[in-house]
């Protein structure tokens, strides 16, 4: 299946196909210098499969975890490209999850003011969300994604076969981001979660999540408005994530926790049960006040208030701006009620 992201300046395909990794050279132009970036948690054979298909590969394997989204590693990727004589005609290929995609994409966005970038997401989370839409970034000064750029990939290759080696926690974390799309935008899609069928319907989940993602990105590529719905649960989620080291909760797990208090009273209990059935956390593992304090630096918090997304009815979002302190109080009230 091929889905297309149609943007005013550049359109690109997302190929969803079992065995796509093994046939990458049929779909990507690898007949040039290629910086292949992967991480230590990704089975080696995935990046090696791509490397063998490149005319002039440079392979960089970064440590696993959010800590790799750093300016130091960004510099390492740029240094490698410079040392290998990469030109504007060469490319970067990410083989991994969201961290690899964000870092490699940012290096592709900046090197010589932007070179081609291919994304081959190997986690469910990156397949349903982060590999599409062109967000690239590193973390800086304790703030997530604060330095980055929009740089759309030339193509995204999704091979569902790679999910077979993914640990179950990563599957659940990816499902949290897919549930985010369903809750904000698609009641029918939400029905798959409500019926307890999400884990056994991954192909359908990937397709439906991507259709929502594509529609949102096509309407609002640079997050002037609508794209904020993809941040549902992320303001608190980022705070929870920032308080933990690389051994803490995964990004998708923090988003799950962040979404709960943004769900209205009529739906929160049901969403809590869905999260439990997906083996996602429903109880905060960190101090709430400390997590809320991170919102003071969140780039979604503009000076005159926080842009928040709420869901009171499954499949429908409410987007509004509220004073930061009012948002914090809403979370305190609801988290208090959840315990
Ligand atoms: N993952 C959120 C976005 O792409 O906007």
Protein traits:
339 residues, alpha/beta, Rossmann fold, Dehydroquinate synthase-like, alpha domain, 2 domains, seven-stranded mixed sheet, 13 helices, 41% helix, 21% strand, globular, binds glycine
Q: Overview of this structure, please?
A:
- It is a single chain.
- By secondary structure, this protein is an alpha/beta fold.
- The chain has 2 domains: 2-164, 3-Layer(aba) Sandwich (Rossmann fold); 167-338, Dehydroquinate synthase-like - alpha domain (Dehydroquinate synthase-like, alpha domain), CATH 1.20.1090.
- Helices cover 41% and strands 21% of the residues.
- It is built from 13 helices and 12 strands.
- Strands 1-2-9-6-5-3-4 form a 7-stranded mixed sheet, sandwiched between helices.
- A hairpin with a 2-residue loop joins strand 11 (305-313) and strand 12 (316-322).
- Helix 3 (71-83) crosses helix 4, helix 5 (124-130) packs parallel to helix 8 (202-219) and helix 9 packs across helix 10.
- The relative contact order is 0.11.
- The model has no long low-confidence stretch (mean pLDDT 94).
- The protein binds glycine.
- The site of glycine has 6 residues, from helix 5.
